[in-house]
Amino acid sequence: MKLQVERDPLAEAVAWTARALPARPTAPVLAGMRLHAGSELTLSTFDYEVSAEATIPVAADEPGTVLVSGRLLAEIVRSLPAKPVEMFTDGSRTTLRCGSATFNLMLLPAEEYPTLPDMPETTGTVGADAFASAISQVAIAAGRDDTLPALTGIRVEIAEDVLTLVATDRYRLAVRELRWTPVVPGLTTVVLVPARVLGDTARALTSGAEVSVALAMAAGWSETGKNVSNDGIIGFEGGGRRTTTRLLSGEYPRYQALLPSEFSAVAELPAAAFTDAVKRVALVAERNTPVRLTFTAGEVLLEAGTGDEAQASEAIGASFDGDDMQIAFNPQYLLDGVGAIDSDVARISFTTPTRPAVITGKGEAQPDYRYVLMPIRSAG
């Protein structure tokens, strides 16, 4: 194999593809990145769960396929100067040259590398920027405890031309609705996608205008969403990049029951000023201790700490409609929710101090994003 490629497209493609490399490969070849040169250069990785593939223009004098250490290649390419990159293979080594820099990499046995799964047929398309924004709003609430695998995923509900994305770690819940363009009319189904993979994918596919979503669903697929199967894969493609991942399985919480339909009090606060105040007051909050919020007409008082510890308090102006209320939250979870809304005013709706509060943007009668946060009952 002998080729020449521009440094910047190569660096972007290598970085995208390397994201699917396993941290602890079960076989040495799974630490490799496969490069196939033909009319284009295709880079790919696969760990039997997640695959990633990128295609970029190339000038190849000799077509061919090599397998090299993915992480080492990523580090090398990231450090190269902004000059054309040449690669050629000689025996058990491949040589990479850029300007006056030369690297010799040992080849891994390409014939032992697993075959990447085929990309399923396209199910629909969604705007790349809107998709990335929606995933980032929801992913903050996904669980990180691998002993509860269903909660580490983002639930994707498809109901014709509406996607509903849901994530929860049992302490907070994020729900986001957005429009998409389905290929199959009347499609209604539910899948559970690993949140980490979906977050990385959505951020990396914004170079194109649209993202194609492709589902390969197993027989006996549950459309009710009570139980979902992992006998299928989901794929995403856009801007010359594609990825697939196996779906998660397990019973997902009945999250609809956590979405209050009526509220006893509503506060509206300047999002930036409120965020800054929470950060300052939380400086004295010990691990797993809350920030207390006391709402009265015209202001909210933020407090943290107890009599035996450092204490902090700060008041900011706020619109509040309802009886005076004190409620307490995990400060980081609160900051995550306020930071995720696409508004300069945060609207917090309450039922009681011991029931979940809902954070949305200002004055949205039917908000497309809702962040539900459980209070800490022992405080106040």
Explain how this protein is built.
The protein is α+β, with helices and mostly antiparallel strands and 380 residues long. The chain folds into 3 domains: 2-112, DNA Polymerase III, subunit A, domain 2 (DNA Polymerase III, Chain A, domain 2, Roll); 122-257, DNA Polymerase III, subunit A, domain 2 (DNA Polymerase III, Chain A, domain 2, Roll); 259-373, DNA Polymerase III, subunit A, domain 2 (DNA Polymerase III, Chain A, domain 2, Roll), CATH 3.10.150. It contains 6 helices and 29 strands. The chain has helices at residues 7-18, 70-79, 128-139, 195-204, 271-281, 331-340, and strands at 2-5, 32-37, 40-46, 50-57, 59-62, 64-69, 85-90, 93-98, 101-106, 122-127, 153-159, 162-168, 172-179, 181-182, 188-194, 210-216, 227-228, 233-238, 241-246, 250-251, 265-270, 291-296, 299-304, 312-317, 319-321, 325-329, 345-350, 357-361, 369-373. The strands form 5 sheets. The protein has a 9-stranded antiparallel sheet with strand order 6-2-3-4-19-18-16-10-14.
